[in-house]
Amino acid sequence: MSRITRRSFLAGIGVTVAGLAVTACGGDKTIAPSKPVSDDMESQLNYYSWGDYEDPGDLDAYRNKFGVRLQVDSFGSNEEMIAKLAAARGTSGYDVVVPTGVYIPQMVEHGLLDELDHSRIPNLKNLEERFFNPPWNPNSRHAACKNWGTTGYMYQKSLTDKTPTSWKDFIDLARGPAKGKVSVVEDPWEVVSIAMGSMNIDPNTTNAKDLAAARNILVNQLAPTIQGYNSSITSIVSGGAYTLLQAWNGDARLALMNESEPDKWGFVYPLPTANLFTDNFAIVRGTQHPAAAYAFINHMLDPEVSFTELQYIGYQTGIKGMVEKAKAADLPFPELLFPSDEIVDRLVVATVDSATQERTEILNQMQARSAR
Known about the structure:
- The chain is an alpha/beta fold.
- The chain is 37% helix and 15% strand.
- The protein is built from 15 helices and 10 strands.
- Strands 1, 2, 3, 4, 5, 6, 7, 8, 9 and 10 form a 10-stranded mixed beta sheet that branches.
- Helix 6 crosses helix 7.
- The model is unreliable at 12-32 (pLDDT under 50).
């Protein structure tokens, strides 16, 4: 339960890792059959993903089912992965990669991804419509949803007699009963979205006045209350140092599963909105193993495989029928796996835009101001 999740690892290292050498995270863990299952199936697949982001049993099942030698390498940020593919100009050797949705238009524009042949991925039909047809990847043209999640906050119920519902409530708790015991994630967009939400402003705004107002709230009001910037919260909740923690829903669930008294905590999907992130399977332009790549994506979108992925990763996969499977399996804290349609419909996708650098500067200024 205390392992660092993909979201935590990404935020903790920031974007400065671009250009670092790729390190092997997986590799062959079983001896694959000596021959692929069909004449058109290649004998090799090179997969580039986040560290510890797939159930090893599902990878072994693919190896054994299709007779493919699967090599798994890991990256630490979208920027690192994109830089690797761009520098190689179609000769990276990778076949399938796992970009976050907001980066897919950029990758398509620069010719890094192949368009998907849907006839070779029949399990695409299993995706929920909102994840099959997102605005940044219409009709899953260049990628298929791997999993998704959102952001909210955990709070000790003893802090208040009321049930908090918004980012404004988060700031009020931080400046009041939770002062000095507050944690936020180490991610510029996510932290700035707290202030934008409290003002009911689009968190993707690039308006200079909006950003200045957010800076004032975060640096002068919120920063003095913060004890830590913790993207990985799964092992710190039980320690007692924090009573209010911004968190991704899957990480909050892992923390509660590790908590001896989970009932003393509440979790809020805050109004008016928060981030909807997705990670996706995509095929690299220039792949040398297209049949193996399509078989892999189709395998991972199978509902049974997807359910084991959901349990291992701790985040929803976008595949239909997962709620029913979770109920049948009596998975703990299902509300943190499955936000309601009402909640999902109000979420927004974070953008990489002209305000990205300023958001980073705001976070850096907050950290300098915080009582740590």
